[in-house]
Amino acid sequence: MARFLVLQLARLGDLLQTRRLLAGLFAQIGADGSGGEVHLAVDASLAALAGRLYPHARVHALPAHAGPGRAPAAVALAVRRACGELAAIPFDQVFCLNFSPLGMAISALFPPEVQRGYRQFSGQPDKDRLLRLVFRLTRERRAAGLNLADIWAHLDDAPLPAALVNPPAAPRGGGLGVALAGRMARRSLPPEILAPIVRTAFRASGAQRLTLLGTAAQASEARALVKQLDPATASACQDLTGRTGLGELSEVVAGLDRLLTPDTGAMHLAAFHGVPVTAFFLSSAWCHETGPYGVGHEVWQSVVACAPCLESVPCDKGHVCRLPFADPALLRLLGGSAKAGAPAGLALFRTDCDGLGAVCRLERGQDTSEAGRRAFRAFAARHLAGEDAALAQGTPEAGLAERFFLETDWMLPPPGRDAVGEE
To answer: Tell me, what is an example of a GO biological process annotation in this record (predicted)?
Structure first.
């Protein structure tokens, strides 16, 4: 009997993007679970939702994030109990997906040869060769296109085919939804830019209902948005900001015809349920890394010269990546015009799947990094298949290998550590 543990200690969006890895593990143990167990450790705030989204997993709740009412002594006790519970289970593989103090502490409970992702070896932090490669890609994000869900899925040797992860996008009958913002405000559109987009999309959709979604902290943005809508659109609006728990949010999103959203957890919920997404990516958000997973979604990606930026670095360019979303040409396209061209600085991508994973295919606008991204995906597929040694000199893939590989990538693992996951 195989036993797997997945440590996913990040936020809602990350939990949803773990689906391909988890689905692949479920497939290995069989639909009835007779071949083993899949355990999933998450922050306590996500445990109930995780149990609903992944009913075949045994969910373990951990205090991974600070929150009201979490006294240090109670947190320490909860961590100790959870670690004792996990340490008592003989796992065949442990997938630690986040580099965090708690994640690394839990990974230290298990021998390094059964761990994938982040881990510890002789008390030192370590990570899989694939993750080392991914970190180097931050130098060339435009030309490197690997979805986060696929990175985690390929930590397993038998990932589920990407097209089987989320349902194809199709309307569900509940009208148009709008997710106001994510955790990073600069990755979202302000009400004065978003309002014309919402008004145009609502009219073009023919929907009878418009639902606003967000946290209590975004309630003022929701009110500001409604004030800028025309009376007919405003009268169809239901403001649910701050009024839904995660379970209720999942139910509302699952019934929509379409969701307008920046890069948010709600976006990944919609993709999880097969609800069509129209996403607006700007600032540090890059659709080739964290776009909606599956077939049939669309992403309007800001491709101004400074995008994608680093969210940890303050913007000194006046948030110019927002400006293309205020271009009237975008409204004409959202309204159904077949003749309008894409605004300068914007590209429209449609989501699809290939043998490697999720892929965003250009439909409108310009994507100057498309050729480089295509070469990189071919290189990544070869790398994951263990075919690096077959690279021919002078090919684009060989050039990528020279840029992204270090001598340490070709060394044998340290004494005492199994080579599984290193080749």
So the answer is: lipopolysaccharide core region biosynthetic process
Tokens for 62?
Answer: 């951990």
- Is the CB of residue 327 less than 8 Å from the CB of residue 321? no
* pLDDT tens track for 199-221: 999 999 999 999 999 999 999 99
24-46: per-residue pLDDT in tens?
Answer: 999 999 877 888 999 999 999 99
Grouping H, G, I as helix, E, B as strand and the rest as coil, residue 255 is coil
**CA–CA separation, 417 and 127 (whole Å):** 13
Omega into 414 within 30° of 0, i.e. cis?
no
Q: What is the pLDDT of residue 338?
A: 79
Give the angle subtended at the CA of 217 by the CAs of 212 and 218, to the nearest 5°: 30
Q: How many CA atoms lie within 13 A of 280 on its CB side?
A: 29
Topology given in CATH for the domain delimited by 176-367 = Rossmann fold (3.40.50)
Give CA–CA dist 284/201, Å, rounded.
25
Residue 86 has phi, psi (to 5 degrees) of: -70, -40
Beta bridge partners of 61: 42
The answer to whether 105 touches 120, Cβ cutoff 8 Å, is no
The matching CATH number, chosen from 3.40.30, 1.10.3470, 3.40.50, 2.60.40, for 3-127 is 3.40.50
Tokens of 332: 């004409």
Q: Round to whole Å and give the CA distance between 129 and 116.
A: 10
Distance between CA 18 and CA 40 in Å, rounded?
10
Q: How far, rounded to the nearest angstrom, does the alpha carbon of residue 164 sit from its chain's CA centroid?
A: 17
What is the strand order of the sheet 93-96 is part of?
57-62, 36-43, 2-7, 93-96, 115-121, 124-127
Q: How wide is the angle at C-alpha 337 spanned by C-alphas 326 and 329, nearest 5°?
A: 20
202 and 256 Cβ atoms separated by less than 8 Å: no
Of 278, 247, 254, the closest CA to residue 264 belongs to 278
